[in-house]
Amino acid sequence: MTQALRPTTGGSLFATDGKSHPLQDTLMVVTLALGLTAFITCFFGSLHLLASWAGLAGILTGAYGQWISETTRERFGLILGLGASGIGFFLGMANGGLFGGLL
């Protein structure tokens, strides 16, 4: 029971195993930021380029982050970012796509 009272001294806020995961934490934060950007900008038709590219980048970084993630907290943040990126990507594609009529 003494181990339940011992504080965890891990280097990462999101690591539940007590180890530092700087790459996984960075990918999670980047995926969340790209997902939030894609999700917000997808509701504006004139920002479809930003929404679709941010969504695509968020999907790719989130997929790689899921592949190398080690803790449940990292996976939870990645899933939130992936969902927002997916919505932003698909609505951005519906409004004009990745190239916006350039091709």
From TrEMBL:
Residue ranges of the TM segments: 32-64, 76-99
Keywords: Membrane, Transmembrane, Transmembrane helix
Name assigned to this protein: Uncharacterized protein
Organism: Streptomyces bungoensis
Lineage: Bacteria, Bacillati, Actinomycetota, Actinomycetes, Kitasatosporales
